[in-house]
Specification:
7 helices; mainly alpha
Amino acid sequence: MTVVTVALAGGEAAAADAGLGTFIEKRCYTCHTIAARAADVEKAKAAFVKEQGVEPAGEDAEEEKDKRGGDLSDVGKKRQPDWLKTFLKNPKPTFKDDANCQREAKKKDRKKFKGTDQEFDTLVSFLMTLKQEAKQPAGFTSCLKE
């Protein structure tokens, strides 16, 4: 396993750095943004791509990706750690009952977190540090019940 670490603004704890690495390694950024820490996410992605020896996706492809999971910049002030742990282990029950949201819940990318217990804990710790204002894309509607 590769661990990507990036110094976060304000000298955040090493656990948050490891959590950012897990966010990148598990490709959470393919559906989610963290606008409040966009520079940190980009640095971590660049370091991960370089270390893995793979070609980064073109900027156009990255911009066109559907960030249907929304901006997580405020998830740490909106959610409790237990809620995040439950959600990451089994997200589908947290989706609203309307037809569109249930369709979204059934998509294959709405899957349980796959990783070690340590990766899981560092990811949750990192998410809990995200307490800035979220900048959701135009037209974004959350499908979460709470």
